[in-house]
Fold this protein.
Amino acid sequence: MQRIDYSLGDRVRMKKPHPCGSDVWEITRVGADIKIKCCGCGHIVMMSRQDFDKRIKKVITDEA
């Protein structure tokens, strides 16, 4: 499986939306674990990189 490198501040779209309705998250910590913050309500979640790789849909690029 291809390993994707993520960086702080990247915005990602997850497969399932958060209960607040947003499916966009911002990466706030990268390492063996990844911490993400919901862009809708500000909720913070920390998960293993393996779990994160399963749940991510795509990395969002700057949309002008």
The helical segments are 49-55. The first strand starts at residue 11 and ends at 14. The chain has one domain: 11-60.
